[in-house]
Amino acid sequence: MKHLRGDSEDDFMVRESRKIAVIGAGNVGATCAFVMAERKLGDIVLLDIYEGFAKGKALDMSQGGQVLNYDGKITGTSKYEDIADADVVVVTSGFPRQPGMSREDLIGKNAEIISQVGAGIRDFAPNSIVIMVTNPLDLMTYHMQKVTGFDSNRVIGQAGILDSARMTHFVSKAVGCSNEDVQAMVLGGHGDTMVPLPRYTTVGGIPITQLLASEEINAISERTASGGGEIVKLLERGSAFYAPGSAAAIMAESVLNDRKRMLPCSALLSGQYGLEDVYIGVPVLLGKNGVERIVELELEDSELESLQSSANFYKSQLRDILGY
Hints:
This protein is of the alpha/beta class. The protein is built from 10 helices and 16 strands. Helices cover about 40% and strands about 20% of the residues.
């Protein structure tokens, strides 16, 4: 048992330490682990095929505990048995995008990796909730759910949180306001077919349609959809990791602390928005059971058409490339 701080400085409670596994110790996985350590979410296991790589990053983070005031145990490993009994597993492993590549170019390579990772999670962390980050996100989340056989509410993709965060940043710059006052909403697949929703994007509760010209909104929506590619092009030797890793950590926090946050995530639809048997980004209530509710927004015909078109694009890839 360990003492964890409660909601106030004087409120302490005793509970068993939570265990979080992060599969893939690259930039995204390491960033996610670091943010979760800072937020004191529990003991963290970094797993990577290169054991020294995982152990080195875990040791480096551990040595920062006194500086950043966290005490949770952070370990590195290459063995799936070390993730046994994890409450949450964040999956970041896979090939990153290179300049000129789309997320969909990674399908074949990363599907093989997810098959191996999913088997490890199924065998050693059968009661965990899985948060997927590997691209192409919606396809790999579907594939993970099939490999593990877990109930769909326990396999969730990190999609709209990152895309909405990117849109938030662009809106805040255009309006000239704080990031904190912007609430953006982006649905659909985590790729070029994503669906930014300006009507549901607000600044201090005011829709951006009342604050920005339509040309500015269209430019922001387009830049949001290509936000990851813009960073890939600038970096030349890699892809985004600070924002994706942090977004996955926020999802883990909502699950572990049962915060029931309303967040846009990739979830398996079963009739919502007129869609069946496809993972796609929609607003969900995220709590201790994973996806506890899928929220259906009232969409205009053009918005619904865009969302369904995005989903059908991924359904065709599931069928034609992954054989589902």
